[in-house]
Amino acid sequence: MEPTTNATVYIVDDDASVREALAWLLRSRRLFSESFESAEAFDAMLSSRPAQRQPCCLLLDVRMPGMSGLALFDLLAVRGDLATMPVIFLTGHADVPTAVDTVKRGAFDFCEKPFSDNALVDRVEQALAKSAERLAQLRERSDLQVRLRDLTDRERDVMDLVVAGLPNKLIADQLDISVRTVEVHRSRVFDKMQVKSAVELANLLRTEK
Fold this sequence. Notes:
- The protein is an alpha/beta fold.
- It contains nine helices and five strands.
- Residues 144-209 form the HTH luxR-type domain.
- Residues 8-128 form the Response regulatory domain.
- Keywords: DNA-binding, Phosphoprotein, Transcription, Transcription regulation.
């Protein structure tokens, strides 16, 4: 798998030697990383930066002094960050049942210590790909909302009936306007929504739901 470009792997572990080893491993696979010694430090970083716009994932130790990895995971889940920031837990044998439970609650995966370097990086790359896909979906949805806001009320009325499958004549009758007026509004809707057919328009609007 090709590395995801402009991506960041966040490492949160209280053990400096683990952070350094993971950072070196990621560099060897051309992956950029940022390391934090505590969940509190990572949370403070997130709070001080704009919303994440580039692919990322989080390598998170389960047990740490202060805020645990599990507590940080719950915080990220409440904020809705897990979709764009997949979490891979780094866990000891005793924590495996807990890690399995977090996967059921939305964690991307867990890797038991000592872990296979190749297997871990493979999962990191898969997590980054998932993050990139989700961010792309969010950008598309945001772009769609901008296009919809550019429509006039009448254009939206025509669009709704076009998507419902009505021909121009029935749309004109229902809205009490001329067929020519329907044609004009229909053409403007297609231009603003950047589509060429009613089917393409319907498929586009389906992604909004």
